[in-house]
UniProtKB/TrEMBL annotation:
<dbReference type="InterPro" id="IPR036291">
    <property type="entry name" value="NAD(P)-bd_dom_sf"/>
</dbReference>
<dbReference type="InterPro" id="IPR020904">
    <property type="entry name" value="Sc_DH/Rdtase_CS"/>
</dbReference>
<keyword id="KW-0521">NADP</keyword>
<dbReference type="InterPro" id="IPR002347">
    <property type="entry name" value="SDR_fam"/>
</dbReference>
<dbReference type="Pfam" id="PF00106">
    <property type="entry name" value="adh_short"/>
</dbReference>
<protein>
    <submittedName>
        <fullName>NAD(P)-binding protein</fullName>
    </submittedName>
</protein>
<comment type="similarity">
    <text>Belongs to the short-chain dehydrogenases/reductases (SDR) family.</text>
</comment>
<keyword id="KW-0560">Oxidoreductase</keyword>
<dbReference type="GO" id="GO:0016491">
    <property type="term" value="F:oxidoreductase activity"/>
</dbReference>
Length: 270
């Protein structure tokens, strides 16, 4: 089974903080010695990240706003592919989380909901679509390529206070299964990363960081467990409490989707 260990060049979207930043730095230590491209909209953070961690010279940076207008985003991704023709893996770690109380509908900010949906889901679909021509081309040349999505344990069992966030991650979860089945024949391997509650800046906006810090998985431990799964070539990589949730509710779903895909192809070809 191909794994991240086979990659020569990895782009991590949303790597200025949290899980994305930690995984990007961990990938520098892979035996294959890949080029790792950190990517986000905050250029000053990217510059600091590269300046502090580039002893090998293999850490690069690209400024990208995932909420750019569609054609602008497509042009930016084409520039990335043209600059890094060896790019064979993309990890999508950008995301935001907002709390909404639907028992008080007058307080629900629909602009904020739509921004969360665009950041966590729509922009990911766009970027995947724009990266795929390059990744499929490499795959058809016999080189394994990878898409790493980041959902959440909350995609399996939601936390009602962050209902829209959970819905966006459920969408990523479902999309990841479908793409994993569709793209396997193109030698493009889709791996879903499924974090539990992890030490992160994600919760700063709502002012819940201190309370949640009593129960989250440390970023160091999370990164270790997740990298082990990525190196093994697991088709999905849960960690912490998400392991039990996935086993209880999702066991066998990827295999079932594979069978359904086969049945659908058989029906449409007759």
């Amino acid at each position: 089974m191909p794994s991240i260990s086979d990659s020569k060049c990895v782009l991590v979207v949303g790597s200025t903080a949290g899980i994305g930043r930690a995984l990007a730095l961990a990938m520098l230590d892979l035996p294959s010695q890949p080029t790792v491209i950190v990517c986000g909209r905050r250029k000053e953070r990217l510059d600091e990240l590269v300046a502090s961690n580039n002893a090998t010279g293999r850490l690069k940076s690209v400024t990208l706003d995932v909420l750019s207008e569609r054609n602008t985003l497509k042009s930016s991704i084409e520039d990335i592919v043209n600059t890094y023709s060896d790019l064979d893996a993309v990890l999508f770690s950008s995301g935001i989380q907002r709390a909404f109380d639907f028992t008080k509908p007058e307080t629900v900010d629909l602009d904020s909901i739509e921004c969360e949906l665009a950041t966590n889901y729509t922009s990911i679909v766009r970027m995947i679509t724009f990266f795929l021509p390059h990744l499929i081309k490499l795959g058809e040349q016999g080189r394994p390529t990878f898409l790493f999505t980041v959902s959440s344990g909350l995609s399996i069992v939601p936390s009602t206070g962050v209902a829209n966030y959970c819905a966006t991650k459920s969408a990523i979860h479902s999309l990841s299964i479908s793409l994993a089945v569709q793209l396997k024949e193109k030698n493009v391997h889709v791996v879903e990363i499924i974090p539990p509650l992890v030490e992160s800046e994600l919760h700063d906006f709502e002012g819940t960081t201190q309370r949640l810090s009593n129960s989250w998985l440390s970023l160091e431990e999370y990164t270790k467990v997740t990298m082990e799964g990525l190196v093994r070539g697991d088709p999905y990589v849960p960690a912490g409490l998400a392991v039990d949730l996935h086993k209880q509710f999702e066991e066998g779903k990827l295999e079932a989707a594979t069978k359904m895909h086969g049945h659908f192809k058989a029906m449409t070809q007759t």
